[in-house]
Specification:
Elements: H1 2-17, H2 27-35, H3 45-52, E1 57-58, E2 74-79, E3 82-87, E4 90-96
Antiparallel strand pairs: 1-2, 2-3, 3-4
Amino acid sequence: MKALTLSLALTAGLLLQAPAQADTLLVERVQAEASQSMPARGQTMAQVEAKFGAPQQKHAPVAGPGDRAHNPPITRWDYAGYSVYFEHSHVVDAVAIKATPTEAGPKPVQ
């Protein structure tokens, strides 16, 4: 009985000394993204540029192999804090840029 008590005490002592580790939720960034004014799905490139100004960088369109109907060109425009993705000339998504290079989001679905 004395050995069990000593063993539990040692284990508890080691646990108290170890720094706590946990996954960091990206709640703050997700909330900030929801409140940030970004282009809406379906807007044209001209509408985005008229409302949000010229992007910091425009990337060349990238298309998948083969048939253009199934692999349309995707263009990315980078603004301060977010990127906008276009299929042909219409917005398909606007995404907040990572807060830090080491920020990790959810694991991809396998």
